[in-house]
Amino acid sequence: MAPSPAPAPGRPSGPPPAHPAAPSTGHRPPGPHPPAHTSLSGYTLGAGIALPRAPGPSELPSVHGALLCVALPALAVCAEHGQLTGEGPEGVYAAGRRLLSRSLLRVAGREPVALQGRMAAADKAVFLGALRVPGEPGPDPALAVERTRSADGTERITLRSAAGRALRLPVEIALGTDLADLGTVASGRPTPELAASVHGTGLRWTAPDGRSAAVTADPPPTDSLAAAGVLRWEADLAPGATFTIHLRVRGEAAGRAAGGSPGGGAGRPGGHLLSDARAEGDDPRPGELLRSSVDDLRALLQRDPAHPADVHLAAGVPWRCGPVTAEALWAARMALPLGTRLAATTLRALGRTQLSGGEADSGRIPGPLRDAGPHLPPRCTGVEATLAFPAVLAEARRWGLPAKDLDELLPAAERCLGWLRRAVAGTGYVPDPGPAGPWRAETQAHAHRAALLGADLLDGCGRSGGDALRDTARTLRERFRREFWIEDRAGGRPALARTPDGRTRSELGGWAAHLLDTGLLGGGRYAQGLLDKTQTDQVARLLGAPALDSGWGLRGLGTKEPGYNTFGHRAGAVRVHETAVAVAGLAAGGHEREAAVLLRGLLDAAETFAHRLPEMYAGEQRTAGGRPVPHPAACRPAATAAAGAVHALLALAGIRPDVPGRSVSVHPLPSAPLGGIRFSGLVVAGEPFAVRVGRLGLGMVEEAAEGLQLGV
């Protein structure tokens, strides 16, 4: 199924579906905003599988407790016991279709006792079980069963005997599938299993639309019962011996053979797009989190079907694996220390969607509408992507983007900047989602950063227009400081938004972190902030206050604000992306204490999630001995969460590259809140980069490209 076209801002396509999406992809806005504002056009599941329109309300099945093996377009959803029971979303998927929903192992007629299920890598899970052997004395199990399942559709099952005598045990695996697409699985609609037929050394299933899946086994089974979907072996085990079965599931579309991936796709993108970054130090958690986050980013890489050379990140698994999105661009920006190639391919994919012509929308990147919380109508992710495009390109240039990529992408960035200037000239602010507004503070922060970084980009590339963009930024900055700041006895606060009739929305939330996010300019400088120093200091205090800091990260909405919901996507849940932006912005602005507290909370949360952070989790206040509460519909892994972890951790070192100026400097946090730490395997100017921060907060560059001037 092809993905739905994205609506223009303010013009959602069609009525809202009855089935709600995950909060990260667009709820119906509560309150006075009409449901017609929300469109799920463009929200996809699997590889272009649209979220279904079920006949009545239902819930997305929770996958938080599942082990998700990811190597897009392949995916395996497993329970901790390791058996695939055919219930809920369990199964092996490729390109958004379930190739295998049931894989039940029995040895001597019994299921192994499940002992442990764990992730061995981003794309692989290992399950351990045990069985007592009939006739053996005592309660100890004499047979260990290990299953290793990979996202690519392969599974290894090993039986290991510790019995004191030779064993001959019947082994059977009951297999089945419905070949359902992931959208149907998400809707909860029942789909019957298909009838199997014997195929080579395994079984085969064929759907009415001609799609099929086949399981092959090595060694070949001694018996195959197609009617029951069962393969059988006789396992002969001497004392201390093992017996191993290899299974492989493959799928194919009607009339087309399967390719190199289980879904017949173009194969996995190369891992060389992202470097092998490592962290070592007094606190072992940053190293674990960085390793896991890089693995998850690699697992989320997927190719543009129409342009296989271009790769971008899926927004999240399992519900948001569709076309390139604004989240993919933000994630590519935060992953720039791992190399610039991902940013280049993501920008290229988004640039192809850019609107052209002489209309007011020329230069804008289209995108769907997304939930913005209880106080505002949905926002347009296309506006967000349009403002991010030139900023990400400008920063990628500072990290060492090759000239050929810069020359190719610069015209699209200029068109984005032209749209920005026209939008600000019309109303004084950038409206979102449509020309009638509202004017969101977060959007103005993106626009201000885009104007300043865009001006720097144009100047550095010998293009005209930089002075006009700086004028635009100055006008926006002066007006914002005057009209978006709400004075009160506590020192004031930024407004969430202004409406066309001049009213302000005062609800405070994690969105305020974007007001501190500036961006890199030449000479290792940061762009001027949207707020003045007094206002910036006050926002830093607000971000560190208990109303916003849950102890695990920033809440999307303060606990004292109307509409607060601990599970609300932008109404109280902790979003890792915003927390990471806050950590980096606070650190760059000299607010070390607040940055360190948020970073420690994020690290503690990551530890409870086995270092695979979900895109969001509940904003419950941290208590002694407590744990962060999972959000039932959150994607995990998620691109902005994995890249956000990289972004937050590297704030400890404060790396500021200026490859066009042939320099790089580091500005570590003086207190070294996590003790001594060393980052290696990073990339600056296309070459390996390593930096050490000592326990006294002193930084030292240990490895860098030849010819770069180093500064601390």
Report a brief summary of the structure.
With 712 residues, the protein is of the alpha+beta class.
Low-pLDDT segments, ≥5 res: 1-57, 257-265
* CATH homologous superfamily grouping of the domain at 67-252: Glycoside hydrolase, family 65, N-terminal domain
> What radius of gyration results from the CA coordinates?
26 Å
The span between the termini is: 53 Å
Task: List the strand order in the largest sheet.
Answer: 9-10-11-12-19-16-15-14
Average residue-wise pLDDT? 88
Percent of residues in helices comes to 10-25%
Envelope shape: elongated
Give the tally of β-strands. 37
Q: Which strand-content bin applies to the residues? A: 15-25%
Largest sheet: 8 strands, antiparallel
Going by CATH, the architecture of the domain at 67-252 would be Distorted Sandwich
Number of helices: 12
CATH topology-level name of the domain at 67-252:
Beta-galactosidase, Chain A, domain 5
Structural class: alpha+beta
Structure, described:
This protein has 712 residues and is α+β, with helices and mostly antiparallel strands. Among the domains are: 1-60, no CATH class; 67-252, Distorted Sandwich (Beta-galactosidase, Chain A, domain 5); 508-513 and 531-649, no CATH class; 652-712, no CATH class. Helix content is 25%, strand content 25%. The chain contains twelve helices and 37 strands. An eight-stranded antiparallel beta sheet has the order 9-10-11-12-19-16-15-14, with no helix packed on it. Strands 5-8-13-18-17 form a five-stranded antiparallel beta sheet, with no helix packed on it. β28 (497-498) and β29 form a beta hairpin. α3 packs antiparallel against α4 (341-351), α5 (381-399) packs across α6 and α10 runs antiparallel to α11. Mean pLDDT is 88; it is low at 1-57 and 257-265.
